[in-house]
Amino acid sequence: MTKEEIRARLWKDAKYAVNSFSEHLIYETLGELRMAVDLKAVSYQEVSDIDSYLIHDHLNNGKYMREVEKQYK
After folding, report:
1. For the segment 9-24, what is each residue's pLDDT rounded down to a tens digit?
2. How large is the C-alpha radius of gyration of the chain?
3. What are phi and psi for residue 56, nearest 5 degrees?
4. Using the 8-state DSSP alphabet, how is residue 60 labeled?
């Protein structure tokens, strides 16, 4: 896989996780992202926007996380 294909796959997984309101899928996607960086398939700078999208825009967003919690009730 090329770096562009890896980035595209990570974005697809990130958007799916967010749109599914699944905290588990978000953490799974973060794991995929970190594994890709650890394996040096991509650099962190190349995927930092995806990391920020998942962590800062969603996991650290109280309004979004309340919606996630509603899915489990």
Report:
1. 999 999 999 999 999 9
2. 13
3. -75, -40
4. T
Sole residue written with tokens 């309101």: 21
Q: What is the DSSP string of 23-46?
A: HHHHHHHHHHHHHHHHTTSS-HHH
DSSP state of 2: -
How sure is the predictor about 73, in pLDDT bands with cuts at 50, 70 and 90? low
- Which among 9, 5, 7, 11 is positioned nearest to 53, based on CA atoms? 11
Both tokens assigned to 34: 């970190």
- What confidence tens digit (pLDDT) does each residue in 24-42 have? 999 999 999 999 999 999 9
- How many helices and strands in the chain, by DSSP H and E? 4, 0
